[in-house]
Amino acid sequence: MKKTIDDLQLNGKKVLIRVDFNVPIKNGKITSLKRIISSLPTIKKVINEGGKAIVFSHLGRIKEEADKEKKSLEIVAIELSKQLNQEVIFINETRGKKLEKAIDKMKNGQILLFENTRFEDLNDKAESKNNPELGKYWASLGDVFINDAFGTAHRAHASNVGIASNIKESAMGYLLEKEVSALSKVLDKPERPFVAIIGGAKISDKIGVVSSLLEKADKVIIGGGMAYTFNKALGFNIGNSLVEEDKIDLAKEYLEKYKDKIVLPVDHATGKSFEDQERIVNKNNPLQILDGTMGLDIDKYSIELFKKELENAKTVLWNGPMGVTEFSNFKYGTEEVAKAIYKLSDAYSVIGGGDSVAAVESLGFEQAFSHVSTGGGASIEFLEGKELPGIKSIQDK
Ligand code: ADP
Ligand code: MG
């Protein structure tokens, strides 16, 4: 068991807190406050206990000097201060005298945010490559370390693994703890029936998730782009749909080994090209995709079938949209599956994955889920059964 924030003595301590403030910014404005709001419980705990909260995060990617202007965390400091109704000291440096002095001057209960950790990537990718000197330096700025950034937990960076490996005490923050417990609940002790839904673009991206869930779930519904490789393996016509020829044998192997578990779409909404357009459905034979068209969503018979599979589920895990939700005419399948999950009154449901979560949020269906994961890649690697370095590096109780 990993230490959590509740295991730490915080009063009077310099508490380093790695959060995920990688917020979307458009025309100089933050367009979603979700990540800032999600970090508040941990920050509040630290200041309420009389700790000095030294907060930091990455924001986007920094490849050249010119990227820095648009990727400063100053805008987040202003928002954080509003949210907490308290001063947030912003230091526009990631190291050096100015930062060190500001930390020395902090009083108990104060908050300081320092600049985007990835500014250090201009220095031979020091942050992203976990330069040992950088992790050690950041660790030297505090007494204890709290990691509350789930979104980067699948990466070994200086601002998570580097610090954790160089400090006396480390723990998970509330958000990280919540993510780990929600995803572990599903993977380790799901109440059954456990129905998993996997979608998205390619099997090759999701192979780890597919095979991990085929072992653990009672049913695995497969939609989105990867369904066509399976349908082709079954001998159906898939027209110009996305297919991975080199994965057909694997699809056949899974269909054989898990024939009672895999549930595939039984009809399709197609288009003539990969762009938004009217939905074409083969009315005479919904299982077969018409030549010259490609599958872009599931249609009503698949939804009926998937709803039936979900009806008695006690645990539901969803990763990957059912269709190309970027096109408004092909959101239907994803929306209907979200509705079906919303109706399950006594199931524990979790959704993870960058595009799936974005799709469900834009449809306004977050409340359908017991837990909406804040990590894209991190939640996928967690579901694959991998131990994430950002979590592994935290001290055990
Ligand atoms: P997540 O980020 O939730 O893990 P993925 O990245 O695996 O999901 O998949 C999302 C992508 O899958 C989207 O860009 C979407 O357009 C694509 N996709 C979904 N259905 C299809 C389809 N039928 N054909 C091609 N691409 C698809
Ligand atoms: Mg994605």
TrEMBL record:
Q: Where does it reside?
A: Cytoplasm
Alphabetic keyword roster: ATP-binding, Cytoplasm, Glycolysis, Kinase, Nucleotide-binding, Transferase
Q: Quick one: which pathway?
A: Carbohydrate degradation; glycolysis; pyruvate from D-glyceraldehyde 3-phosphate: step 2/5
* Classification via Pfam families: PGK
* Molecular-function GO terms, alphabetical: kinase activity
Enzyme Commission designation? 2.7.2.3
Q: Does the keyword Phosphoprotein apply?
A: no
InterPro entries per the UniProt record, alphabetical: Phosphoglycerate_kinase, Phosphoglycerate_kinase_CS, Phosphoglycerate_kinase_N, Phosphoglycerate_kinase_sf
**Which Gene3D superfamilies does the UniProt record give?**
Phosphoglycerate kinase, N-terminal domain (3.40.50.1260)
Q: Which domain of life is it from?
A: Bacteria
Locate the residues binding ATP.
206, 295, 326, 353-356
The catalytic activity, as recorded, is: (2R)-3-phosphoglycerate + ATP = (2R)-3-phospho-glyceroyl phosphate + ADP
**For substrate, which residues are the binding ones?**
20-22, 35, 58-61, 118, 155
**Which PANTHER family does the UniProt entry name for this protein?**
PHOSPHOGLYCERATE KINASE, PHOSPHOGLYCERATE KINASE 1, CHLOROPLASTIC-RELATED
What's the subunit arrangement here?
Monomer.
Q: Which family does it belong to?
A: Belongs to the phosphoglycerate kinase family.
HAMAP family per the record?
A: Phosphoglyc_kinase (MF_00145)
Q: What is this protein's name?
A: Phosphoglycerate kinase
